[in-house]
Amino acid sequence: MSSERQSGWEDDASVSRQKLGLRDRIAHFTWANFTCTQSTGGMSILLSETPHQFHGLQTVGAVIFILNVALFVLFCAAMAARFILHPHMFKRSFTNPPEPFYISTFWVSIETIIICIQRFGVPHTGPWLIVAVRVLFWIYAAVTLIFSTVMWIILATKSQIKAIELHPVIFLLIVNTMLTGTIASVLIPSQPPVHRMSMIVAAVAYQGLGWTVTTMLLAWHLASVLERGLGSPSQRFGMFMPVAAPSYAIVCLIGCSRHLPADYGYFAQHPLAVEILQVVALWASIFLWLVTFWLFALVLVATIPVMLPFRNHRFEPQMHFTLAWWGLVFPNIGFALATAYIGTELGSPAIHWVATIMTILLFAVWLMNLMLHVKAVATGQIMWPGRDEDVIKSD
User: Fold this and answer.
1) Domains present along the chain, CATH in parentheses
2) What is the pLDDT of residues 108-129, one digit of tens each?
3) CA dihedral of residues 72, 76, 79, 80 (deg, nearest 10)
């Protein structure tokens, strides 16, 4: 805890003695706050797809979706106010790590909204919404690809980042593009064959890009952990971020394979390809599942000692809430979805129960984080000078 105090952390008592106006606090409303909306949207999706459904669960998912849209609009307004009141913060937010890495959470939040529109909107509206989500899909695909390309160039030319010091959230700089495949896997069941085919092709292509870049980043990330250690206890949950890539790859591969247009185009000419690709998708997903579990287990083992520290027979917490805690939710939502998808393909009730238990635990963690996020804003633990992702680090 002492190291965190030296880096600018102060207890609630000292916070209460200070006065800081809303204008000054809004200057520290960083892109990292969108980790909340990406996780809230993800929770809505998970509840809609968890294997063991009960009456009212879909309604709960829809309510969380509406809450997520409201939070997203609120956060966008706060970010706009930050840049209007403090114009110099705009450029800094793109060039001062680790905040630039968190810009991707804005795009991932939009990804969850698009999927939720499909889940909760398309079944209850006309064909116009099917066209609308398809248009949103292609816009998302184009914008995130451009963003991921340009952002790497900006970081390379404007920031001093050593490979050995990469922040785990850097994975989002490619995962947000990779999630194009996840969107496609959810949207294609309602799309006509001609559009379904093009979306599946795009999904596989984007998945290849995302997985290839993620694999390279993973080597740097593990080297950084070995060289520099596990980092601050309060930031350690951010290390769950690499779990997202293989998790959502599984969701994309199985989701797309379920809805291949058997009587259209390539698949009409090669009818055996449908079953072959479905088999390949399942077993490639099983191949990736243990990679996902290993990445999850690494972080879990690393965080348990600081989550539940006992010294001299007393419980002495070493952590305080930071926005990195949302790393507990979104990547592991993908892990739960991937587990459920594999269970469905294998027809395994046992795997379905594992996915359901994961869903229950994640829902509890999401609620905890939501309450802690509100408390952190109210008590000055975040949106405060020196305590957010916009802090300028000295050499």
Assistant:
1) 19-379 (1.50.10.150)
2) 999 999 999 999 999 888 899 9
3) -170
